[in-house]
């Protein structure tokens, strides 16, 4: 089970990173197209006018993938920001209580948002909502990715909540401690 | 319920959540949800998720992960080390020495990037480890980064000026040009502070290097060439008409990969590490932006910022008193909301007051950006603080403490452009005079 | 007492927003304050792409949208943006009247009620040189923001180029784009003289903004309130069309006063665009099916 979950978080993160690579490739294709036209013009030839259709919209959708699919893994590596001043200095008992509360609230809220993100995607599917630009892209696709990313995030919070309740150390607390030992980069 | 009481209650909810140790984005969304449930009849879940969708799926925002990725690649190459080696002999006699690289680096990078988070993250990733290695004072190094990272908003291109220009129908070209001199002035003020600090705190500065003969200096300068190539490549792609400012970020990624390959530091492993690092950092920022967007829309429905701004308008203040009141108002609002939200939520109410007071709208845009820049480094919600917390492991209150002198310098800068409006207006009036 | 939050896409200085502010005022006065409308201009509550759905789902009871933003959902929403179909205020009015029943039907499918629609000034071509015939557009980088503007550029032999709105000044200054088609309002509001030189008054089409209301929210009003809203809407529509005409004259003058050359399109240019228009009308009719054909038939009567 542990292995399966860890693999899920890792796969989601790889998808997120792939979205960033895709953004870079699409933008660079457009830039190189303009560069080629510049050279053609210098050579006195007609421009090709290469165009990545709906570049801005597609890049925006890919950014949604990059941002949301990485949520869980970013949590587990303690990169999400929080103010740990109080919790770090609290006595052990209080600290456990606070951490449990943080995980309960975090899971509750993220699960709530996951539900409404899924509802948003489903509604776009029902009403055939499409993007405005040159290529009509069904909005339910990137919106479903957003819901999926939030879902994996909610799962990872539940995962850590269960670990915390069964007396273990949540992933991000372990990561925070490990980073503390290494000192400031 | 009285509106200021509600505002207070929501502030307390946010602070409680943050103190408990909730992630910033979660605390912001919790505050947004409480505000919606208490005060707004529109369905909370759909409103908040529609807003998150609108905020997350943004073309302009794509530049942010690209620039962060660029920083991660450069951090893993030898480029920053070389840059500092090349610059060190030249900065030997300037009080504060290489600390100025933070400020100038941010100033130059701001000419490419429209956001302060991207500026802070990219320059910080490159400069901070080098400065630490060379024994510079950590507090000042982090403080200069936090402060000068905000230049990303003032020096064109700037996301905030675009938002302001669109809302007020001011020329974006003029706003951009108007930001140049105040940006340079702020740079100079920051550098002046660092120089004075270095003169007073000689003991906290690392020992001076051996003096380097001129010929050796010039030889060392060759190692600046790659950085120069990168800057010229990215800025040049914009001015040669090859890339929009947003697209230039991807050009930066490509050029950084090229340089890393040139140095022999590009490998499968370093590529993957940089990419994953960028993915996580930009995810962290995007998550907070989503939380901030939720709070913004909740504020839009509740009308709290609108009513507070309207209350200032009802006081019938003289122009200077109005500006003083607005500055205070923006600073307080900026502690809890991000800068763009502050502009978006209040322009409709504030603009008529500003026009009635006879203030120039281009000038006011620059004033607004300066004031909003401060919100980037005020706790508990300040994006530069978050970026630096992630980078250094210091908590945001420590980082905010380090950034405090720079916050005060920005207040000075505001006073200066109020006293000398020409600082903002001279350049656009001269350059675009018909 | 009911309070409606109303997201709109444009800033307070825009003539559409001003018209809507007057509409809100009228509603409030006519209902003695029992229905008030809080305008959230410049996308400050919901951004333009989200406004229609926000109203459909009742997140905001009322809102303003550019009709042709929905063109990818259904070609009917593009009717006012088919180039060179209706090129004057009178023709645009006739086209609006012809298309209104089917527009209302399509909106009703999404539980939306059309309150009123107001046109933008006619679309003209901005460029960095004078265009005296289609030949002058050969190889020119022409701004395309949707399938239809991409098609115009292609048919004119220009190079379609995507530029986002906030990027327009930079794109012109750095040579990523050489020409665009938009209204004198947008040109004057973005101070087009900072980055280009010529405006060609081609009057290609008159796109409209519409104010839509969520059906459930509307039905929840008292009969008196409903009537007040409808009356104010009718007034706003009439006022808006006149304001749009005044806007055209005023903003064209602003362009001229700031040194932009206003070009009356040459016969050759008109003829060239006429051909493009005829082809695009046929293509639109094919895409819009029976509904579209019926609209064109009524329009041509
Ligand atoms: Na900038
Ligand atoms: Na702040």
UniProtKB/TrEMBL annotation, chain A:
Single GO cellular component term: plasma membrane
Keywords in alphabetical order: Cell inner membrane, Cell membrane, Membrane, Transmembrane, Transmembrane helix, Transport
Name of the protein: TRAP transporter small permease protein
Domain Tripartite ATP-independent periplasmic transporters DctQ component residues, every copy: 24-165
GO molecular function: transmembrane transporter activity
Organism: Stappia albiluteola
Compartments, record wording: Cell inner membrane
TM regions (residue ranges): 7-28, 48-72, 101-122, 134-158
Main location: membrane
Subunit structure: The complex comprises the extracytoplasmic solute receptor protein and the two transmembrane proteins.
Record PANTHER family: 2,3-DIKETO-L-GULONATE TRAP TRANSPORTER SMALL PERMEASE PROTEIN YIAM, TRAP TRANSPORTER SMALL PERMEASE PROTEIN
Signal peptide (from-to): none
Membrane topology: Multi-pass membrane protein
Role played: Part of the tripartite ATP-independent periplasmic (TRAP) transport system.
GO biological process: C4-dicarboxylate transport
Family, as annotated: Belongs to the TRAP transporter small permease family.
Automatic annotation (TrEMBL), chain B:
Residues annotated as transmembrane: 53-75, 140-166, 172-200, 221-242, 248-266, 278-301, 321-354, 361-383, 403-427
Pfam families for this protein: DctM (PF06808)
This protein's GO CC annotations: plasma membrane
Lipid bilayer topology: Multi-pass membrane protein
Residue span, TRAP C4-dicarboxylate transport system permease DctM subunit domain: 12-422
Subcellular location: Cell inner membrane
Keywords of the record: Cell inner membrane, Cell membrane, Membrane, Transmembrane, Transmembrane helix, Transport
Protein origin, superkingdom: Bacteria
GO MF assignments: transmembrane transporter activity
Major subcellular site: membrane
Family, per entry: Belongs to the TRAP transporter large permease family.
Function summary: Part of the tripartite ATP-independent periplasmic (TRAP) transport system.
Assembly, per entry: The complex comprises the extracytoplasmic solute receptor protein and the two transmembrane proteins.
Name of protein: TRAP transporter large permease protein
Organism this protein belongs to: Stappia albiluteola
């Amino acid at each position: 089970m542990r292995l399966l979950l860890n693999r899920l978080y890792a796969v989601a993160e790889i998808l997120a990173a792939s979205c960033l690579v895709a953004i870079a490739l699409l933008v660079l294709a457009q830039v190189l197209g303009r560069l080629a036209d510049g050279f053609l013009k210098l050579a006195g030839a007609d421009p090709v006018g290469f165009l990545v259709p709906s570049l801005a919209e597609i890049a925006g959708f890919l950014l949604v993938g990059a941002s949301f699919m990485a949520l869980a893994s970013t949590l587990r590596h303690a990169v999400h920001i929080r103010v740990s001043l109080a919790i770090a200095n609290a006595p052990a008992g209080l600290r456990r209580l606070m951490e449990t509360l943080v995980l309960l609230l975090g899971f509750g809220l993220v699960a709530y948002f996951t539900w409404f993100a899924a509802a948003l995607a489903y509604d776009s599917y029902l009403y055939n909502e499409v993007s405005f630009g040159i290529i009509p892209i069904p909005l339910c696709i990137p919106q479903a990715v957003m819901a999926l990313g939030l879902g994996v995030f909610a799962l990872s919070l539940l995962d850590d909540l269960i670990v915390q309740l069964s007396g273990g150390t949540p992933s991000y607390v372990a990561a925070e401690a490990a980073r503390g030992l290494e000192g400031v980069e | 319920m009285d509106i200021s009481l509600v505002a207070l209650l929501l502030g307390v909810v946010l602070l409680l959540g943050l103190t408990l140790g909730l992630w910033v984005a979660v605390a912001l969304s919790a505050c947004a949800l409480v505000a919606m449930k208490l005060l707004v009849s529109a369905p909370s879940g759909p409103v908040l998720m529609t807003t998150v969708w609108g905020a997350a799926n943004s073309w302009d925002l794509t530049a942010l992960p690209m620039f962060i990725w660029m920083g991660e690649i450069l951090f893993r190459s030898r480029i920053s080390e070389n840059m500092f080696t090349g610059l060190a002999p030249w900065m030997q006699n300037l009080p504060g020495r290489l600390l100025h690289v933070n400020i100038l680096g941010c100033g130059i990078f701001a000419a490419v990037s429209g956001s302060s988070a991207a500026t802070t993250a990219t320059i910080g990733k490159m400069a901070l480890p080098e400065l630490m290695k060379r024994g510079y004072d950590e507090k000042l190094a982090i403080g200069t980064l936090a402060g000068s990272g905000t230049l990303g908003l003032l020096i064109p291109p700037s996301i905030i000026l675009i938002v302001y220009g669109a809302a007020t129908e001011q020329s974006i070209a003029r706003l951009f040009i108007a930001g140049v001199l105040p940006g340079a002035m702020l740079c100079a003020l920051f550098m002046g502070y660092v120089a004075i600090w270095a003169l007073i705190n000689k003991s906290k500065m690392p020992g001076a290097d051996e003096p380097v003969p001129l010929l050796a200096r010039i030889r060392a300068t060759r190692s600046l060439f790659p950085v120069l190539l990168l800057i010229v490549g990215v800025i040049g792609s914009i001015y040669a008409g090859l890339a929009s400012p947003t697209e230039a970020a991807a050009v930066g990624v490509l050029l950084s990969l090229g340089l890393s390959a040139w140095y022999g530091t590009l490998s499968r492993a370093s590529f993957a590490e940089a990419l994953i690092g960028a993915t996580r950092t930009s995810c962290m920022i995007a998550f907070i932006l989503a939380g901030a967007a939720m709070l913004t829309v909740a504020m839009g429905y509740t009308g709290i910022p609108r009513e507070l701004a309207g209350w200032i308008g009802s006081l019938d203040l003289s122009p200077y008193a109005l500006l003083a009141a607005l500055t205070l108002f923006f600073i307080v609002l900026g502690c809890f909301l991000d800068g763009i939200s502050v502009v978006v939520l209040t322009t409709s109410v504030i603009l008529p007051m500003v026009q009635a007071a006879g203030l120039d709208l281009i000038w006011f845009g620059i004033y607004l950006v300066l004031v909003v820049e401060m919100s980037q480094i005020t706790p508990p919600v300040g994006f530069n603080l978050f970026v630096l917390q992630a980078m250094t492991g210091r908590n945001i209150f420590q980082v905010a403490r380090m950034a405090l002198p720079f916050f005060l310098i920005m207040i000075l800068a505001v006073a200066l452009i109020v006293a000398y409006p020409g600082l903002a207006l001279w350049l656009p009036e001269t350059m675009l005079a018909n | 007492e009911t309070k409606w939050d109303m997201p709109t896409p444009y800033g307070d200085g825009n003539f559409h927003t001003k018209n809507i502010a007057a509409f809100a005022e009228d509603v409030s006065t006519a209902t003695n304050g029992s229905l008030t409308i809080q305008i959230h201009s410049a996308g400050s509550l919901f951004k333009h792409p989200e406004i229609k759905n926000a109203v459909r789902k009742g997140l905001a009871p009322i809102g303003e949208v550019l009709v042709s933003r929905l063109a990818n959902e259904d070609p009917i929403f593009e009717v006012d943006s088919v180039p060179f179909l209706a090129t004057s205020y009178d023709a645009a009015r006739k086209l609006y009247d012809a298309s209104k029943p089917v527009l209302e039907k399509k909106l009703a499918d999404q539980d939306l009620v059309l309150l009123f629609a107001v046109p933008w000034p006619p679309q003209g071509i901005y460029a960095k040189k004078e265009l005296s015939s289609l030949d002058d557009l050969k190889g020119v980088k022409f701004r395309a923001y949707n399938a239809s503007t991409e098609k115009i550029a292609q048919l004119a032999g220009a190079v379609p180029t995507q530029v986002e709105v906030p990027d327009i000044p930079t794109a012109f200054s750095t040579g990523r784009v050489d020409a665009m088609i938009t209204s004198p309002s947008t040109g004057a509001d973005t101070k087009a003289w900072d980055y280009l030189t010529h405006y060609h008054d081609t009057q290609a089409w008159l796109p409209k903004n519409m104010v839509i209301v969520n059906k459930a929210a509307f039905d929840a009003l008292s009969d008196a309130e409903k009537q007040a809203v409808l009356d104010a809407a009718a007034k706003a529509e009439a006022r808006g069309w006149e304001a749009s005409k005044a806007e055209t004259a005023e903003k064209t003058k602003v362009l001229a006063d700031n040194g932009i050359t206003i070009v009356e399109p040459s016969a050759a240019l008109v003829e060239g665009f006429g051909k493009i228009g005829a082809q695009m009308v046929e293509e639109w009719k094919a895409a819009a099916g029976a509904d579209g054909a019926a609209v064109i038939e009524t329009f041509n009567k």
